Amino acid sequence: MTLTEIKKNARAEAFARRKDAFAARSAADCDRLKTVLVDHAGKVLAGYMPMRTEIDCLPAMAAHAGPVGVPVILAAATPLKFRRWSADATMVAGEFGALIPETGDWVEPDVLIVPLLAFDRRGYRLGYGGGFYDRTLEGLRSRKPVVAIGFAFSAQEVDEVPIEPTDEPLDLIVTEREIFKPAH
């Protein structure tokens, strides 16, 4: 089986686990993330607009003491850019249906909340397969220190995410049950 096939199968399994966790979600799921972000007050934060069954980071983004951006896909196989966001921003549909601010300044994050399908204790994540976050993290990290926080349901943890050389590790993983720093 090729790595592409392995990742495809892993994504299908991860979607199912996340769907079950999403069905059991609670309003308190984001509390640990809010606690973590207190340590990053004043820094530029980038989160994401939750889609489908992704865990909701919007309460933490809205509570952040500093500028907040959300990802904008400009083209396939390119890094993400981040447009400044606030809870009252006018949002429009972007690529893949993700909501983006209709207008606003571009920001470069110091802290990046990363969505995912699965994660492991090494700090690797399984994304949707477009490579957007890996390219983005590689570029940001070549210019400055950036903290990449994986935010997920604990049910999304797997023993080992299949990885390739271009996969960028996470610096911290936050679930509704725990916060941990991966060993990578």
List the helices and strands and how they pair.
Layout: H1 3-23, H2 31-38, E1 45-46, H3 58-63, E2 68-72, E3 81-84, E4 91-93, E5 99-101, E6 106-107, E7 111-114, E8 118-119, E9 125-126, H4 132-143, E10 147-151, E11 172-174, E12 179-180
Parallel strand pairs: 1-2, 1-7, 7-10, 10-11
Antiparallel strand pairs: 2-3, 3-6, 4-5, 8-9, 11-12
Family: Belongs to the 5-formyltetrahydrofolate cyclo-ligase family.
Protein name: 5-formyltetrahydrofolate cyclo-ligase
Enzyme class: ligase
Q: What's this entry about, in short?
A:
The protein is an alpha/beta fold. It is built from four helices and twelve strands; from the N terminus they run H-H-E-H-E-E-E-E-E-E-E-E-H-E-E-E. It catalyses: (6S)-5-formyl-5,6,7,8-tetrahydrofolate + ATP = (6R)-5,10-methenyltetrahydrofolate + ADP + phosphate.
Structure description:
With about 180 residues, the chain is of the alpha/beta class. It has a single domain (about 5-180), classed as NagB/RpiA/CoA transferase-like (Rossmann fold), CATH 3.40.50.10420. It is about 25% helix and about 20% strand. The protein has 4 helices and 12 strands. The strands form 3 sheets. It has an 8-stranded mixed sheet, with helices on both faces. Strands 4-5 form a two-stranded antiparallel ribbon. It starts with a helix and ends with a strand. The model has no long low-confidence stretch (mean pLDDT about 95).
